[in-house]
Write a structure and sequence with these properties.
The structure holds two protein chains of two kinds.
Chain A (H helix, E strand, L loop, with lengths): L1 E13 L5 E13 L3 E5 L6 H9 L6 E8 L2 E3 L4 E4 L11 H11 L4 H14 L15 H14 L4 E5 L7 H18 L2 E6 L2 H7 L2 E5 L6 E6 L10 H13 L9
Parallel strand pairs in A: 3-8, 3-9, 6-7, 7-8
Antiparallel strand pairs in A: 1-2, 1-4, 4-5, 9-10
Helix pairs in contact in A: 2-3, 2-4, 3-4, 4-5, 6-7
Chain B lengths: L16 H11 L1 H35 L7 H13 L2 H33 L1 H16 L2 H12 L4 H24 L3 H9 L4 H39 L4 H10 L3 H30 L12
Helix pairs in contact in B: 3-11, 4-5, 4-7, 4-9, 5-7, 6-7, 6-9, 7-9, 8-9, 9-10, 9-11, 10-11
Classes of the chains: A alpha/beta, B mainly alpha.
């Protein structure tokens, strides 16, 4: 059953010289409940624009975003978001950053401490609740961002290239943690990346996008089972994906 | 026994190895030397500055003894003001006026600064007013305030608030313009209420601007309040300086100035610096000229 349906999404931007540029072109796909759907496409094709539209930071010019729960359509629900950079408030402790998200999500105050403790433990930062973010490493901060997105316990979580700014070893650990948590918590996740092995490791389904203006190229079910191990089969599936998509860095305007 | 062997389970260390390390580090000669250097670096330069001013003053006094009072007699006068409580009474009156005026200005300037930085119409409306406000000298406002309100407490409050308001607004407006858009977007995504956005995301980003503005604004406010007190009130430091001036009591004028400056230093280092340190404790120290 789908949790999110993107239907004929179209988005235009105006360049500095006033010329309109089409970003999304009749893009349609769905994110299934309890699964990780990975959006793969070349840099600048409009993946982040789509996530921003889903979360309400931008508006589609045409098309629909349908949020579904138990088969019924509903208003835009609470959505967890892991950004490319952690976007933590540096003047708030790690625990307070999560508490503020809980407050925004109107979670009962009596529940806050349990959630802060639980989700920080899950991302391996149980002892860091009272630390300020600037005293943590980049990977640790990204883990806090992940804990914050999961702590609000929304049905839908968006992740916008969340490991792009950390080194490969840290990124691997973070992928492992995130994939494990997604399986354990059974959340619907829409994960954006342009890294094919990452897409192969993280996904239950892969949506590949064309170059700008982005439209659906392929919708692929990941044949790999769970729990995942980082190994040759990941690279084999990534190679399969590469055959299906064109990831050429070109001037797109 | 081999040195690498694990200790017997019944021999427990009194404190953990982490605590031992911390204790050794605190006692290490490196820490003591470092602390000593830091204390010297903090105390010696301002002390030298004070000594040079005193030396120049003494020299001038020795050259022009009839024109300038000596440091010793002036300090004796300052001590008398402190001992008989005159200073504290009048200083408190001036402090109250500055505090009330600055609080009113701060309240309105935060609101107007945020409005100007976030709403284009607000920026276009207030910008010319703020620029004009910046060009009007505090002394003018002091005169206008006394002429408008007469000899009462509203005049200094008004003069202080109106003088520092444009300067506070300019700083806060500049801070709002430089707000981190990513954090604002984050607050939107996580459904922060408007009050949460202002109090948890916007104002903390404005802290450096607010402190810069407060320091500069207080400097201006003291000058304005002293002027208003000279001809618009019957107490306060300005009134006392005026009284000393009318009887050509130079020692009195300088003693009041010195005690006033001392009070300013206490406020700057004891209150403003302390509050700023507390509010920016989250920021790691940066050593730009690291060697």
């Amino acid at each position: 059953m789908a949790n999110l349906v993107v239907k004929d999404a179209e988005k235009w931007f105006r360049r500095e010289d006033g010329q309109p540029v089409k970003i999304l072109n009749r893009l349609s796909f769905e994110a299934r409940e309890g699964c990780v759907t990975v959006l793969v496409g070349p840099s600048g094709c409009g993946k982040s624009t789509l996530l921003n539209s889903i979360v309400g930071l931008e508006r589609l010019d045409r098309g629909e975003l349908l949020f579904v729960k138990n088969g019924a359509q509903r208003e835009r629900p609470l959505i967890g978001y892991v950004f490319q950079s952690p976007r933590l408030l540096p003047w708030k402790t790690v625990g307070d950053n999560i508490r503020l998200a809980l407050k925004g999500a109107a979670v009962d105050r009596r529940e806050w401490e349990r959630r802060v403790e639980r989700y920080l433990e899950m991302v391996g930062l149980g002892e860091y609740a009272n630390q300020y973010p600037l005293y943590l490493s980049g990977g640790q901060r990204q883990r806090v961002g992940l804990a914050r997105a999961l702590a609000i316990e929304s049905d839908l979580v968006l992740m916008d290239e969340p490991f792009a700014s950390v080194d490969e070893l840290t990124a691997r650990q973070l992928r492992q943690t995130t994939r494990h948590l997604c399986e354990e918590l059974h959340r619907t996740v829409l994960f954006v990346t342009h890294n094919l092995p990452e897409a192969a490791y993280m996904s239950d389904f892969v949506v590949t996008l064309t170059r700008r203006p982005a439209s659906l190229q392929e919708y692929v079910a990941n044949p790999l089972g769970s729990p995942r191990q980082w190994g040759p089969e990941i690279y084999n599936f990534a190679a399969d994906l590469e055959n299906k998509v064109t990831l050429k860095e070109e001037t797109l305007l | 026994m081999h040195s690498g062997m694990a200790p017997s389970p019944d021999i427990q260390p009194a404190i953990s190895s982490k605590e031992q390390d911390a204790a050794h580090f605190q006692e290490s000669p490196f820490v003591v030397r470092h602390l000593g250097r830091e204390i010297i670096a903090r105390i010696v330069p301002p002390l030298l500055a004070a000594v040079s001013v005193l030396a120049i003053w003494l020299l001038l006094y020795l050259i022009f003894p009839r024109l300038l009072p000596g440091p010793v007699s002036t300090f004796a006068e300052a001590l008398r003001l402190l001992e008989d409580g005159t200073f504290f009474f009048h200083m408190l009156q001036s402090l109250r006026r500055v505090f009330v005026g600055a609080t009113i200005a701060m309240f309105f300037s935060v609101a107007v600064g945020i409005y100007m930085g976030t709403v284009l119409v607000g920026e276009r409306f207030f910008q010319p007013l703020v620029v004009v406000g910046l060009t009007i000298p505090g002394l003018m406002w002091a005169l206008i305030a006394v002429m408008l309100f007469g000899i009462n407490e509203i005049a200094p409050y008004f003069a202080v608030a109106v003088t520092i308001f444009p300067m506070l607004v300019i700083n806060i407006w500049a801070g709002v313009k430089a707000l981190d858009k990513e954090l604002i977007d984050m607050s939107h995504v996580f459904h922060f209420t408007p009050w949460m956005k202002v109090s948890q995301v916007i104002i903390p980003q404005l802290v450096p601007n607010i402190f810069a503005a407060t320091r500069y604004g207080l400097g201006l406010a003291w000058k304005v309040v002293v002027v208003v007190e000279m001809f618009g009130t019957s107490n306060g430091v300005g009134y006392q300086v005026m009284k000393a001036y009318q009887v050509f009591n130079m020692e009195g004028v300088i003693a009041w100035t010195l005690t006033f400056v001392a009070a300013m230093i206490v406020i700057e280092y004891g209150i403003i610096n302390y509050v700023e340190r507390r509010l920016t404790a989250w920021r790691p120290k940066i050593d730009v000229w690291r060697r």
